[in-house]
Specification:
The chain is an alpha+beta fold and about 425 residues long. The chain has helices at about 1-10, 30-50, 70-75, 75-80, 95-100, 110-115, 155-160, 165-170, 215-235, 280-290, 315-330, 355-375, 385-395, 405-410, and strands at about 15, 30, 55-60, 80-85, 90-95, 130-135, 135-140, 150, 175-185, 200-210, 240-245, 260-265, 270-280, 295-300, 305, 310-315, 330, 335, 345-350, 375-380, 400-405, 415, 425. It contains 14 helices and 23 strands. The strands form seven sheets. Strands 3-9-10-16-13-12-11 form a seven-stranded mixed sheet. The longest helix has 20 residues, at about 30-50. The two termini are about 35 Å apart. Bound molecules: zinc ion (ZN).
Length: about 425
Amino acid sequence: MDNIVSLCKRRGFIFPGSDVYGGFAGTWDFGPLGVMLKKNIMDAWWHYWVDSRDDIFGVDAAILMNPTTWEASGHTATFADPLVECKACHGRFRADKLVKGANESITTEEFKNQNPKCPTCGKSDWSDIRKFNMMFKTHVGPVEDDSSVAYLRPETAQGIFTNYKNVVDTLYPNLPFGLAQQGKAFRNEISPRDFILRDRECSQMEIEYFVRPDNWEKEFDKLLAENNKFLTEVIGLDSAKLTHYEVPEKDRAHYSKRTVDFMYKYPNGEEELMGLAYRTDFDLKNIERASGRSMDYRDKNTGEVLTPHVIEPSIGVERLFLAVLTNFWDEEKGILHLPDNLAPYKLCVSPLLKNKPELVKKARKVYDALKEKYTFVTWDDSGNIGKRYKKQDEIGTPKCIVIDFDTLEDGTVTVRDRDTASQIRVKPEEL
Ligand SMILES: [Zn+2]
């Protein structure tokens, strides 16, 4: 993991947030290469789930939502972590992270029976556990009182549910259909850690897939297979590093009848990469109660009226980003074996020597012609050719095109392959 973090900083994928001011815990900034890789990952997801299907549609809801949203969804009451404070050094920690095998519902009694040591000062003098709500609170408008409280959304899902009725009334989609959204979500983690795995601000890609209640099992299995296909074939993750964890009933959210966590073997150990949850009609019924508006769906052909049930595939962009980097990074060779669809740059053009004007001029011509057609071409004339190959290998560029002295003779250019280091010569128009 340290190697990945260092690669990210060295090559401009990810920097610590607010780095120049000493950082800001739980935040990370994407640099030039990171922006491109992240966008390619998000575009691949959007293309696979939305653009290439005719049953899933996009929405892009506001980050600030009416606070009733979070009352209705249960977040105001229950989106909380167990917090304990060390009475000796006043360090604050998540209680469940200090006790082996514990989860978020750990009680003060269970915690004190184990009596763990404070990770900071080593003493064992603890406060009672209190629930700490992880939503970021803010105020809307110029008056900072209880009536102006709003929250940065802790998940993108509610922005989909609150638009369900609008979409049904305007698009009249047939069941089953889905609504997809990509966007930022915010969680005030007590102790952010593990690089970008647990940060306070993250991007999510979520789909709420609306199905007939009697058909949820079939649709769940279908979505499970499609998500597998996305992760292994579209993104190219090694299927040996992916496992499915059937979440047992006692650990599931109370409304979920089935949840499968897709686990990925990160360098630090296995972590949740994405979740697939059957949420029943929990959310639509909550909105119905809180808004007083019917969430009924009327079948166009049969006239049947029902409330759809929901299956939700939810994936964190940063988690997938990190899975991609660790999956394709070869530390020994210093090569990032990104598939073509994800590589920030697909082609790099350079003159063999940058102090030979005739080579530079010819190389510029080749570069300009490619750049006119494709955005994914980069130019590199820094250092010597060996250093350039090394750099392009590290950022995952599949092919390097070099204009050398043979080019001036016969017009062909060298194309060097990242993964094999093999070279062929082709005419520029064949590129
Ligand atoms: Zn302490």
